[in-house]
Amino acid sequence: MLKIGHLPVASPLVLAPMAGITDTCARRIAKRFGAGLVYSEMVSAAGLARRQPRTLEMLAFHPEEQPYGVQIFGSEPAEMAEAARIAEDEGASIVDINMGCPVKRVCRTGAGAALLCQPKRVEEILRAVRKAIGCPLTVKMRLGWDAKAVSVLDISRIAEEQGVDAIILHPRTRAQAYKGKADWSWIARLKEERRIPIIGNGDLVSPQGCREALQSGCCDAVMIGRASRGNPWIFSRTLDLLSGMETPAPSLESRYETVLLHKEWLCTQYGKEHGLRRLRFLLFQYGRGLPRATRFRQQLVSVKGEEALDGLLRVYFVEGPNRASFSSEP
What we know:
single chain, alpha/beta, TIM Barrel, 2 domains, eight-stranded parallel beta barrel, two-stranded antiparallel sheet, globular, disordered C terminus
């Protein structure tokens, strides 16, 4: 069993923090399908430290999500420490420091991947956060700012020295964003260099790929991001592969049951109107790769009202996408 600090994690599969995606409902779904650890979407340390209501709302979680991590971003040590303390007080099992976000508006403030260029500031932040919390502390990072400024070994050494309990590495630079191929040789190298658990992230798009990464021994766990959107079965199918079983892709009926569960939780969490708006976006992901998916997406855009939406879901997932109304791709 994986342990991060004093915290046992039941499976080596971790749900990545994704802005606008990994709310409490998505995290519960991932846990149901076998994720051992789930992370919140990225939360502003400044917003938490100022106790802004909308930021505090992002900490909402359900007990069945535990262990559950909150990822915070910022560049001011005192602010990051206060935000981490609030996250722990609100129920987080783990606090994660974002040192990998490549988005300009985040990096302009000195946060996210910009911290990879500031080892002294990283040391100050981690020291302050480590003193502020008793729960495990993780760091999610990239290789460095660009190919000429690869700082992963330096920053990871500082992280370990300051009491970080695990490192999550996405082996691309900030300049690469999500282009090119993630260089997993860096994850293997980090595993050799550091004594704390290493979690590999990047280009994990299938159960087979996740199994290969874990069985290679280059990391202690894998973090799955975009491939899990509308596809929580990547967790259960990976666990099956690790135990020697190969399970098929989920049936339409299984997808339908999961969609309905996700809908129920969204409407409970956000109210019906807001919950259904969030569901529409997620349905684009749940239908990805299925027959007549383009037609399904087109109808999602135009369908109005909960009753009509429920009818569309029944037709597509229960009666099957080969029904006449889905008989032709545009």
